[in-house]
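Model it.
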Amino acid sequence: MKIKAYLSIVTLFLLSFAVAQSAAAQTRGPSASGKYQFSLEDGYTKYVEFSASTQADGTVAGDMFLSDEAKIADQDVDGTGDPTLSETYPGFYFKADFDGLTVEKNQAVMSGTIRDSSIKSFIGQRVLLTVEDNGTNSERPDTLTWGIYPPVVKQETPTDAEREVDTGAGTTWTTSDYERKDDPEVTYPKDPTITSQSFELTAYDFVEVARPAGDIQVNP
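Modeled.
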């Protein structure tokens, strides 16, 4: 009986190891994650928890949670376009699901859609979270920045009314620097949807964090 029990334990261990290896293989690729508490010049505590990883099929899975104790004014709460109409919140939070991830060295940009928030007008908007992993560098802590963007309403493609089939409508083209083999192709017209590739990493201005606690990890 002891021998059978031992063999059963070994079998279970091997099965669990195989499952773990299979799960790792499905998510192997660039990733970013972290739990980070910090403050800015306003002195209010902010907290972000996030995880994003590239799956085997090229899609991105992950989510984020961000909370901020700072007061915020949400403009035009009734949607009339009147900038004098606003509502002030004593802090806020939002949760988002990621669908995009771009990683370069120790920096990563994640894009997604806000699914839940204490400010209802945030729900459905796009969010970009950009992070920088500075390891154990005590002089330069991990840092980040984020932005919320309204969803883009795509317009109908204009066509020539005098042609039954307008072959030119919706035409796209790509361009790149012919003399540079490392210059990636760019497709025009560009998709206006905010994604992790909407802006170059050099375009982001990271915040100056104070009293940081936690860790940000970026894996190319």
